[in-house]
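[step 3/7] inverse_fold.run input=structure_tokens len=77
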């Protein structure tokens, strides 16, 4: 695991966050998915670094790459 992404039950209920912050990987994905750029995030949140945002993306990739089946609601089997 990347040391830039951590998880601690005492911080944000254990959600993966950027180390030393309360910024969750989920929030980063939400912002990027809504069309904000990495540069936008870095301007608005100076405690973030480009490396940290990229680490969050790599973490998310690893999560969806794991051998876990995620059922989609509304899908017919």
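[step 3/7] decode complete -> sequence:
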């Amino acid at each position: 695991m990347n040391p830039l992404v951590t998880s601690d039950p005492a911080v944000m209920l254990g959600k993966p966050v950027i180390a030393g912050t309360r910024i969750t990987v989920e929030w980063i994905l939400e912002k990027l998915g809504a069309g904000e750029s990495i540069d936008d995030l870095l301007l608005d949140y100076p405690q973030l670094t480009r490396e940290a945002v990229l680490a969050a993306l790599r973490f998310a990739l690893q999560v969806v790459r794991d051998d876990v089946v995620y059922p989609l609601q509304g899908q017919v089997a």
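[step 4/7] annotate
The first helix runs from residue 25 to 33.
The two ends are 34 Å apart (CA to CA).
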